[in-house]
Specification:
This is ATP phosphoribosyltransferase. It comes from Ectobacillus ponti. The strands form two sheets. A six-stranded mixed beta sheet has the order 2-3-1-4-11-5, with helices on both faces. A five-stranded mixed beta sheet has the order 8-7-9-6-10. 36% of the residues are buried. With 211 residues, it is of the alpha/beta class. The chain has nine helices and eleven strands. The chain binds 1-O-pyrophosphono-5-O-phosphono-alpha-D-ribofuranose (PRP). The site of 1-O-pyrophosphono-5-O-phosphono-alpha-D-ribofuranose (PRP) has 11 residues, from strand 9 and helix 7.
Length: 211
């Protein structure tokens, strides 16, 4: 049995992914008692895990350091990487939206300024609508931008809608549905075919049984 390295996204997705891994019979006891550790081994399989930031999941998988990754579709859409997207896990569901303060006029002909953590997704969206906008890249707490006048609107992910609501913003356009995806390194799929597909197929079966 060849070793499989899985890169997991630190933060929001971390907890949601555990039942999936346990559901397909992977021991996650080390992951559950992780403290500040970033590398973990499953006691009953040939699988180990690394815990990294979302965009780094893509990088580790693209370079083959990790064979498999679990990461949000938002991050996949924003960063063009040479990876295969294999399974929609149906967790971490949220959506890309255009949001702003109530006085925002989406149909205005004035050139708009859009603040976002996702400049590529935002540019592609407005380009496809035939609208020329200025994009300002922000690293977080994007909701502040239209309130303080940095931008006319934001493009961001909305999960519960609480952050928008608590900051007095509303959704003007729903862009794409997002969820966590299982991604794979292209070479690993060939070199470790049996081990890789064992994980991927079990994951698909687990998801099928949940529906
Ligand atoms: C994301 C997103 C929103 C919030 C939406 O930010 O950018 O701010 O979550 O979630 P909600 O609809 O459930 O309120 P994140 O928590 O990742 O933090 P950040 O702004 O620091 O990137």
């Amino acid at each position: 049995m060849r070793h499989i390295q899985i890169a997991l996204t630190k933060g929001r997705l971390e907890k949601a992914v555990l039942p999936f891994l346990e559901g397909i019979g992977i021991d996650c006891s080390e992951l559950k008692e992780k403290g500040r550790k970033l590398v973990f081994h499953s006691k009953n399989t040939n699988i180990s895990f690394i815990l990294v930031k979302a965009v780094d999941v893509l990088t580790y998988v693209e370079h083959g350091v990790a064979d498999i990754g679990i990461v949000g579709k938002d991050v996949i859409m924003e960063n063009e990487k040479e990876i295969y997207e294999m399974v929609d896990l149906g967790i971490g569901r949220c959506r890309f939206c255009v949001a702003s303060i109530p006085s925002y006029d989406p149909s205005s002909y004035k050139k708009k300024t859009i603040a976002t953590k996702y400049p590529n997704v935002a540019s592609a969206y407005f380009r496809q609508k035939g609208e020329d906008v200025e994009i300002i890249k922000i690293e977080g707490s994007v909701e502040i931008a239209p309130i303080l006048g940095l931008a006319d609107a934001i493009v961001d992910i909305v999960e519960t809608g609480v952050t928008l609501r608590e900051n007095g913003l509303i959704i003007f356009e729903e862009m794409h549905d997002i969820s966590a995806r299982l991604i794979a390194n292209k070479a690993s799929l060939k070199m470790k075919k049996d081990e890789m597909f064992a994980v991927i197929e079990k994951m698909e079966e687990y998801i099928g049984n949940r529906v």
